[in-house]
Amino acid sequence: MRMDPFAQWCRRPWRSLTAVVFTGLIVGCGAEESSAPRPAFTATALVEGATDGRSVWVRVLDQNAEPIDGASVSVQLESGDVRDAVEVGRGEHRIDGLLEGVVPIQVQAGGREHLLKHAIENPYATLVLPVGGELDVVWQAPQLAGLPDGDLYLVVVARLDPELRFEIPLEQAESYTGRASIPYLMPGQYLASLELWRVPEPADGMSDADAAVLADAEEAPVKILPLTQPRLVWIAPGEAAQIVLGSPTVADAPRP
After folding, report:
1. What is the CATH number of domain 133-245?
2. SS3 (DSSP) at 150
3. For 9, which DSSP code?
4. How many angstroms separate the CA atoms of 97 and 239, rounded?
5. What is the tens place of the pLDDT at every residue in 100-127?
6. Span 5-129: which CATH code?
7. Whole-prediction pTM value?
């Protein structure tokens, strides 16, 4: 009898001990689903008999057991410091130098943050997300030649959830043409556009030092100039969508 990919994945020895997360649901391979209510995107992986260790390997997969690209993984230590994981393969990340106990592992994927409370005694943690899609954008902003200096951004916003927002800085070549991609998006409708972000000039009488602090501040005031009309794009599970913003041709656009 042919098993589905998730069942095959569950049969692997170390994975059969690891709790995995679906959206708002905790599932253990070969175990019954928990009926108790749980916070969304949260799981506690406590495994008896696992070997002691100070490194944890975190895998970010979809429900077809395929690795999810573009995820970032970190852990917040008791001191309050944040330690970033090292990407060691597609969808696989390693966090080193951890002490004993349970640590909150933060995974950012698909524009959302997911939390796993993980016992370090178990060296493996897995986050499973819905099957998503990829977005490839070919863009051109020819009107930049007549505008003041600024930073060019590709902005992608979920149509039904404006807080789910991607802001990707773009390199400005002489042709003002390029290509950008988002490797993983949750299925649904999104609006994509190009924006020019400008930090206002320092006020009269402001010292150079104050102007430098203002420019570097995370919450520095920014003037946003839309360069294209938002374009609707559908992201389907397991598929790659391609759109054009501005007036480039796909053949002429450079590849990253």
Report:
1. 2.60.40
2. coil
3. H
4. 38
5. 888 899 999 988 889 989 888 889 999 9
6. 2.60.40.10
7. 0.65
Angstrom distance (rounded) from CA 155 to CA 133:
17
- Region class of 78: left (phi > 0), else alpha (psi between -120 and 50), else beta: alpha
- Whole-angstrom distance, CA of residue 198 vs CA of residue 43: 41
State whether residue 241 is helix, strand or coil. Answer: strand
CA–CA distances in Å: residue 253 to residues 135, 248, 256: 15, 7, 10
Is residue 235 within 8 A of residue 188, CB to CB? The reply is yes
Amino acid at 2: R
Q: Assign 44 a pLDDT band (cuts: 50, 70, 90).
A: very low
Helical residues (DSSP H) of the chain, grouped into ranges: 5-10, 208-216
CA–CA gap between residue 245 and residue 139 (Å, rounded):
5
Could you tell me which of 181, 218, 182 has the C-alpha nearest to residue 199?
A: 218
Cβ(245)–Cβ(179) under 8 Å? no
Between CA 41 and CA 25 the distance in angstroms is 8
Domain 133-245 in the same topology as domain 5-129? yes
3-state secondary structure of 59: strand
On the question of pLDDT at 222 being above 50, the answer is yes
- Please state the domain extents for the chain: 5-129, 133-245
Digit-coded pLDDT (tens) for 131-188: 999 999 999 876 666 666 788 899 999 999 988 999 999 887 666 788 999 999 999 9
Average pLDDT over residues 216-233: 77
Specify the DSSP class assigned to residue 30. T
